[in-house]
Each structure stands twice: as structure tokens, then as C-alpha cells.
Amino acid sequence: MQSFFPLRHSFIVGVALFEPVSSACREKEYPTSDGQCCPMCQEGTVVGRDCTAESGTHCVPCQTGTYMNQQNGLKRCLSCSTCGRGQKCTSTSDTVCDVLSGFFCKSLIDGTGCSTAEKHSVCKPGERIKQPGTSRHDTVCEACQPGSFSPDGVNCTLWTKCSENQITVQDGSLTADVVCSNGSRHRYFLSLPVVCFLILCFLIPLCSRGFVVI
User: Domain named TNFR-Cys: which ranges (predicted)?
Assistant: First the structure.
């Protein structure tokens, strides 16, 4: 992989005296494996070679796909995060990931990048979308108000009102509309006593007079 600039541009951090360490290293210094203290490398670089009595710390730049965001005494840069979209990493900062459409960020990194994304919630039948999901917040759902319904969990619609010439076949619910039928609201029934009365009053006299009822 190519570095951000040639190695010949690597720089030497100021010379540090190569002497035994009697106490902890000072600020902006790091301890070496043999117990010496050397000047740290700057952001975007790591240690290529520890300091000696004749030279300071030799720092080398982070290669493409790696970064270092602080002064350090490390020998290897950090690997850049990989994501589908977002701001690409540089030698001094990691990738700032953004979420895909239909997802929201569940865990932010330093208030900007996203480390964990989750798919937007889907509202259930009988509910509506109160607030659509964004890249930072999940969908907010709420139940339909009485007298309305939602079969798909998107919007709530008021129940249909049957007209005077219709009858209600099925009552409405949170998930289904009222069902109306074209028919009279009034139904007439002939009870058994009424039928018997009609037979006695009309059919029997006709038969007695010689009429045949077909």
C-alpha cells in the first residue's frame, strides 16, 4: 500500500539523551523496551526506530487504510473502520461512518460517527407512524384513535359511515373498516300466529265456497 507521503519525508523528532531511566517518562515521551525514554511521534505517524544517544525518535507516516489520532510511541498505526458510506479516514482520523437508508444509528462515536446501526421499526396494524425514522432516531408509532383503523401500520383512517339505505354488516376495529351492505335497514317477519290468522280468515272461507287454492 502507498503511504500518504514518501518515507524520505519522515522526520526526526528532537534528540533525546540516551540515559538510564530513574523515574517515569516525562509528558510527550514513551518508554522503550530497554527502559529508555524517547520523544513521542506526532499524529499521523508512528515509531519507525527508537531514539539513540546520537539521534531522536525516527517516525514514519501511516499508510493508506491506517491512522493515528494522537501523539504516541507505537510501532503500528490503527486500522481504519470500514463502512458502506461516510467520511473516509485520513492519516490522523478514523472513518466517520454514516447509516444506510432505512436504518438509524444506535451508538455514536464522539457524537459524529456511528459504530452500531439498526433497522427502523415497523408499526403494527392498528398503529400509525407518528414520527418517521431518521438516521439518528427510530420510528415512533402510536395506536389509532377510537373510530379509526390502520391495516398496514402506516396511517389511520376514520371508519366508513353507512348511509340510511345501507346496513352495517361488520363493525369496525383498529385494523379493519366498517362493512356496509346495500339493503333496507327495516326487515319484516311474519310470525306463526299471524300466518295462522291469515289462513283462517282468508283461505278456509274460500275453500268452503268451492274455490280451490293453488
Answer: 24-59, 61-97
